[in-house]
Amino acid sequence: MSRISLTEFSEILDAELPIAAMLGIRTEEIQGGHALLRMPYRPDLTRPGGTISGPAMMALADVAMYAVVLSLVGRVELAVTTNLSINFLRKPPSHDILAESHVLKEGKRLVVAEVELFSARQDGTRDLVAHVTGTYSVPPHAVTAG
Length: 146
Known about the structure:
Elements: H1 6-16, H2 18-23, E1 26-31, E2 34-39, E3 46-47, E4 51-52, H3 54-73, E5 80-88, E6 96-106, E7 110-120, E8 126-137
Antiparallel strand pairs: 1-2, 2-6, 3-4, 5-8, 6-7, 7-8
């Protein structure tokens, strides 16, 4: 069970994280410890060679980790990224990018999460294009597990 609703998370993005709107990031699903977000393909997000830019994919992954962390701790907007590592696995074609995130470990002050970034083809198939791990720092009163 999620401690934040899809609507509440979308409100936080709209009010506090304007880069999500600039990139067109939408949250499709949020559950306790799991989130699915989408960044629609746009030509202005590409870099030379026609691939989606790394900074755009990193931003999507970070927002997906934020979603999954808040799914555990609720509306704690002061949760912040302390580490983010991305491995680009293949050039994403000109399709939307999906970010599927889940929690690896929830500790007293830190939450470690993983994000898989997929290129979402029109026929519904997905190609893994990047793997991301990250750590979020959460204010001590917000963490629920040890």
